[in-house]
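ok, trying the design again with the full structure, not the truncated one.
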């Protein structure tokens, strides 16, 4: 089984609500019917103000969401990409390796329903100053355990890009999903950085560590709602 992640952009003339409705009512079910396994849609949500908790670049080209799923082989992707491209203004695909350093302690909501809480999806390239080995070592060996220590994360999914699936896809190296139980966990810096007594110090620790393997001005972070459409691959 191989995991694919697609970044999704909508036409500015296409309202966010109509885009989300189309993804949930038409695209998700069509992907599952075609054979996508472990489908997850993350659709942009504006209920949390990331500006108070993480550095966010102002960019007109922010993604409207992501679609991720598993196939027996990446070679089978063409029909799935056609479904996505028909619904989106632009699509960028990636073959990734997934790890889940922290998973839900429970899941009691049905497929297709919004998962509780919010997910911050962060997408970033590998800085030219680092080798692949240095980039992975700092991201996995230092930043992941620090993020799990500091932030109130319910689920943490780390996708390492193995390769881009089309020339138009931006040259990103990582796609991370940080799932919190409530909007307040994400938009309140005191809660997001570990409480009143530790928030200032923890924010400095996180930023210092992030700068060791990222160029922060090139990180794209988007607040999303998650929708799970099918069980994980077996």
């Amino acid at each position: 089984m191989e995991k694919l992640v697609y970044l999704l952009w909508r036409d500015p003339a296409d309202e966010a609500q109509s885009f989300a409705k189309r993804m949930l009512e038409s695209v998700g079910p069509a992907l599952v019917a075609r054979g996508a396994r472990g489908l997850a849609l993350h659709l942009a949500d504006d209920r949390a103000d990331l500006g108070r908790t993480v550095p966010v670049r102002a960019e007109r080209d922010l993604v409207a969401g992501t679609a991720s799923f598993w196939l027996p082989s990446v070679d089978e992707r063409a029909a799935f990409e056609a479904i996505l491209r028909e619904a989106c203004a632009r699509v960028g695909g990636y073959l990734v390796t997934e790890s889940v350093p922290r998973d839900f302690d429970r899941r009691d909501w049905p497929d297709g329903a919004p998962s509780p809480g919010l997910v911050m999806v962060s997408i970033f390239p590998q800085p030219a100053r680092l080798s692949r080995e240095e980039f992975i070592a700092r991201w996995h060996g230092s930043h992941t355990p620090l993020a799990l220590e500091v932030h109130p994360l319910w689920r943490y999914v780390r996708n390492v890009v193995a390769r881009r699936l089309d020339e138009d896809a931006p040259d990103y190296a990582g796609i991370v999903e940080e799932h919190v139980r409530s909007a307040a966990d994400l938009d309140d810096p005191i809660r997001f950085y570990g409480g009143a007594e530790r928030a200032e110090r923890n924010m400095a620790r996180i930023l210092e560590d992030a700068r060791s393997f990222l160029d922060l001005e090139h990180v794209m972070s988007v607040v999303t709602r998650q929708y799970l459409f099918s069980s994980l691959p077996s």
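Keeping the full-length input from now on. The longest strand covers residues 90-102.
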